[in-house]
Amino acid sequence: MNIKPDTKQLATKFLTGLKKHFPDAGCSLRFLSPLELLIATILSAQCTDVQVNKVTPELFAKYRSVKDFAKAPLKDIEEMIRTTGFYHNKAKNIQEACRQIAERFNSNVPDSMDSLTSLSGVGRKTANVVLGNGFGRNDGFVVDTHVFRLSHRMGLAVGTTPEKVEQELMSVFPQNDWTFLSHAMILHGRTNCNARKPNCEQCPFKKFCPKINI
Description:
Blueprint: H1 5-21, H2 34-43, H3 49-62, H4 66-71, H5 74-81, H6 87-104, H7 113-116, H8 124-134, H9 145-153, H10 162-172, H11 178-191
Helix pairs in contact: 2-8, 5-6, 9-11
């Protein structure tokens, strides 16, 4: 991938600024194990992390292992996660993924992209969340709606899909910072550079943001 020198310089400035303004950026989902993170991430699809965090304490207290989830009555899981939306599909994917983990991975959540994405309901984005936050591995870059939006506004990516944007971001940022960057960009997107009305006047990156300096 051919990267323009000014894009690389812009990425460096943005990374430095994010570390300054969001030094403690991290995963907002609450979890104590890779399994809990995997399930919480599945639940977070089209649902806020705040709502997921309201549901998971009781869920994880009742079901503590992949075998617990695999053997549980599906309707019981559905009822416990109902408020996260799309609960029929989410419950089905959670149970099937846990059965696959028990059968194929000795009841241990796998720590590779290929293995994770082979599980029911687990795409590349979910796998990146689990790898980065559950295993401390920067194998990819989580691109949610905030990261997708900011990447284009900041002139860091032109891709039309999350997968293409991920490849562009991975090419301009240091690999060791990928997990931190996704969380910091999400925070910036939530607190300042929102979708409908970005607060450009108060933006800490306004001096070099291409959108502002057109």
